[in-house]
Amino acid sequence: MIVNRLVQSITTFVLTAAIARNLGAEAIGQYLLAYSYYFIFVGIASQGLKIFFARELAREPQKTSVYLMSGTWLQLIFSLVSYGGLVIVVFLLPYSSKTSTLCYIMGLTIIPFALSNVTEAIFQAKEKMHLIAIATVPVYVLRLIIMNDLGDATEVRN
Questions:
Q1: What is the pLDDT, as a whole number, of residue 105?
Q2: How many separate helices (H) and strands (E) can be counted in the chain?
Q3: I want to staple 125 with a disulfide (CB 3.0 to 4.6 A). Which of 57, 74, 77, 95 is the partner?
């Protein structure tokens, strides 16, 4: 869990610094706005269900498949409703089309995050937290590689 949090924090910092350096103040402002909306609405989509599932699965591990299926559907519904809320809020506020589009695209990541809550809860309930790091750390590393490639492409274009 420590490795997961550490890699996540470093990746977020490097990504933010690279956007500011390569794309400028306007782009970093748009990114941070979209990221803020993402965090607000991912919190709405989660609704503390990860903690609830982990607690219930620790009590009744034989019901893992039931919680996996029902939890996945519940998180999918909550994430779609949350994304719909994000779209409405961004649409109603006077942002440029470029900023709105960025918010819509980043907001789509609410859905896979919410769905991952169920599997993380299962791993936590079964005390296999190392599987969370094994699943997420490569994603953060891949994100840095893609960001680096995009940064190189931007520098070539400029």
A1: 92
A2: 7, 0
A3: 57
Dist CA 37 CA 43 (whole Å): 10
- C-alpha distances in Å from residue 107, one per residue of 11, 41, 129, 142: 19, 8, 27, 19
pLDDT over threshold 60, residue 154: no
Q: What is the rounded CA–CA span in Å between residue 139 and residue 145?
A: 10
CA distance 118 to 120: 5
Q: CA 67 to CA 57: how far, in whole Å?
A: 8
Question: What are the phi and psi torsion angles at 10 (to 5°)?
Answer: -65, -45
pLDDT at residue 101 greater than cutoff 60: yes
The set of long-range contacts for 22-27, using a CB threshold of 8 Å and a minimum separation of 24, is 22/151, 22/154, 22/155, 23/154
Which residues are CB-contacts of 79 (< 8 A; sequence separation ≥ 6)?
45, 110, 111, 113, 114, 115
Cα–Cα dist 20/111, whole Å: 27
